[in-house]
Amino acid sequence: ELFHSSIAEVENEELRHLLWSSVVFYQTPGLEVTACVLLSTKAVYFVLHDGLRRYFSEPLQDFWHQKNTDYNNSPFHISQCFVLKLSDLQSVNVGLFDQHFRLTGSSPAQVVTCLTRDSYLTHCFLQHLMLVLSSLERTPSPEPVDKDFYSEFGNKTTGKMENYELIHSSRVKFTYPSEEEAFLVGPLPPGRCRSPLRPKTLLLTSTELFLLDEDYIHYPLPEFAKEPPQRDRYRLDDGRRVRDLDRILMGYQPYPQALTLVFDDMQGHDLMGCVTLDHFGEVPCGSARAGQGHEIQWQVFVPSAESREKLISLLARQWEALCGRELPVELTG
């Protein structure tokens, strides 16, 4: 009832999928907001809080859609709703490990990233989106030339796998990243201010844990972009060895789910230097322990109990394989 009375633009429009997600707009890259995302047979709608209007520039406000003229008699009150018509959609870029996806149109005001931070939610949305796009009438694209997998997605000069691209029958391009790209990172510049709580990308490998500042909205560069962004796509904020994890502290609060990772700050092991070093150079990465220092704590907030249990399970498995005993997990008040 809400969709058909206050959001849908045409009478025969059908609602196909709904999810709650954090979103970032191309014209306000530093602002992450929560939205109710509705996928219909005609468009993708992002229902936002009314208080966000002051953050957006005039060109983006042209895309705000307010239909509810009978405000006093309606049971639903839509504050602001950003509309991206499927006929304007040109490409979909999927983030690393399916943690987010970007919808891109032909102008900066038609670019928005959904930070689901959940591979299942991303997969479900993309499945429904492809089904809806299949029903759109568009001019068929030319038949592609047959290529083998490595010649199409491999780089002959570096031997690395590149992004996987799929051209949908609606001519919308879907791009999936190579999982190698997250390791092409540089350290944060010295003296950078770190706010107490802000979004991070946590990356767990077989031996290390990394916190990354990730630019979700500018990469890959849209076709209309005239210059590169000021930020790198991935910038390393901190890195620790899994074996240096001493214990995990768990809180009781239901949302957000909190975890505190307590590390022994091992002197003489500069992991930040290791991950930025040219490993093919002459200077090897030092790994000697010069003695135990003070503790380092990462306080991590995750959106759900399932996410927290998954992270703990993966960490415990890696830690036990490296240290030969069970990882201590403590409950706190």
From TrEMBL:
<keyword id="KW-0963">Cytoplasm</keyword>
<dbReference type="InterPro" id="IPR053015">
    <property type="entry name" value="PH_domain-containing_M2"/>
</dbReference>
<dbReference type="GO" id="GO:0032418">
    <property type="term" value="P:lysosome localization"/>
</dbReference>
<protein>
    <submittedName>
        <fullName>Nischarin</fullName>
    </submittedName>
</protein>
<dbReference type="GO" id="GO:0019894">
    <property type="term" value="F:kinesin binding"/>
</dbReference>
<dbReference type="InterPro" id="IPR057288">
    <property type="entry name" value="PH_PLEKHM2"/>
</dbReference>
<dbReference type="GO" id="GO:0010008">
    <property type="term" value="C:endosome membrane"/>
</dbReference>
<dbReference type="GO" id="GO:0032880">
    <property type="term" value="P:regulation of protein localization"/>
</dbReference>
<dbReference type="InterPro" id="IPR057714">
    <property type="entry name" value="PH_NISCH_C"/>
</dbReference>
<feature type="domain" description="PLEKHM2 PH">
    <location>
        <begin position="74"/>
        <end position="142"/>
    </location>
</feature>
<dbReference type="GO" id="GO:0007030">
    <property type="term" value="P:Golgi organization"/>
</dbReference>
<feature type="domain" description="Nischarin C-terminal PH">
    <location>
        <begin position="195"/>
        <end position="329"/>
    </location>
</feature>
<dbReference type="Pfam" id="PF25625">
    <property type="entry name" value="PH_NISCH_C"/>
</dbReference>
<dbReference type="Pfam" id="PF23142">
    <property type="entry name" value="PH_PLEKHM2"/>
</dbReference>
